[in-house]
C-alpha cells in the first residue's frame, strides 16, 4: 500500500481560484499552494491579489478580472493559463449576496447575483474543461451554501443561485466525469468572511447561528482546508456530483 498522504499531494498540478482576494477564496489559494500546486488567483481587486501572491511566493500568479463578464471568458482563460499552463483544478469561490428582501429585489441585483454565482462558474468551467479532458484528469469545485437547501431572509436571489449550484454540480459530473474530471461543491456554514461580516459583527446573531450547529460553534477558515484539499486531489477520485456541507452540522439539525 502506498503512503495515503500522497493522495493529497498536489505537486505538479495547476489550480485556478476565483474570488481569491479575500475570505474562503484566499484561504483556498493558500491551502492548494501549500499542498504543492501552482496557483492562479482571480479577482477584481489587484491590491489584495498582489498581497496573496507575495504571501505564497513563486508558485502563485494572479489575474485581475471580472469573471461575470461573459464576453471576456476566452481572454480570461488565456490569462489564467499564461503563468503555469492550463489549470487542472478550478475552485469557484467568487460570489455576491445583495441581501435584498423578496419584495425589494431589483432586476440589476438579480442579474448580478446569478451572473457571478451561477453563470460564471459554468462558462469558465466549460472553457477550461477541454484541457482537463486532454489530460484525463481535472477537478471542479463549486461553492454551494446553507441556502442551497434552506431559505433565509433577504436571500431569495442568492438562495436561487446556490440551489442551482447544487444541480449544476450534478450536471457537470454527468457530462464531464467520464473524461476523468470530477465536479463537486462545498457548502460552507457560517465562516468569518466579507459576505458574512454583518453576521459576525452582531454577537447575538453569531451566537444563535453557532447554537444551531451540532458542534456548537461557527466555522474558522482552517475548517475548510481538509474538505477542499480532499475534493481537489486524488483522494476524491471516485467522488463526483456531490455537495459536501462544511457547516458543523447546521443542516443536520
From TrEMBL:
<dbReference type="Pfam" id="PF13561">
    <property type="entry name" value="adh_short_C2"/>
</dbReference>
<dbReference type="InterPro" id="IPR036291">
    <property type="entry name" value="NAD(P)-bd_dom_sf"/>
</dbReference>
<feature type="domain" description="Ketoreductase">
    <location>
        <begin position="13"/>
        <end position="189"/>
    </location>
</feature>
<dbReference type="InterPro" id="IPR057326">
    <property type="entry name" value="KR_dom"/>
</dbReference>
<dbReference type="InterPro" id="IPR020904">
    <property type="entry name" value="Sc_DH/Rdtase_CS"/>
</dbReference>
<dbReference type="InterPro" id="IPR002347">
    <property type="entry name" value="SDR_fam"/>
</dbReference>
<dbReference type="GO" id="GO:0016616">
    <property type="term" value="F:oxidoreductase activity, acting on the CH-OH group of donors, NAD or NADP as acceptor"/>
</dbReference>
<protein>
    <submittedName>
        <fullName>SDR family oxidoreductase</fullName>
    </submittedName>
</protein>
<comment type="similarity">
    <text>Belongs to the short-chain dehydrogenases/reductases (SDR) family.</text>
</comment>
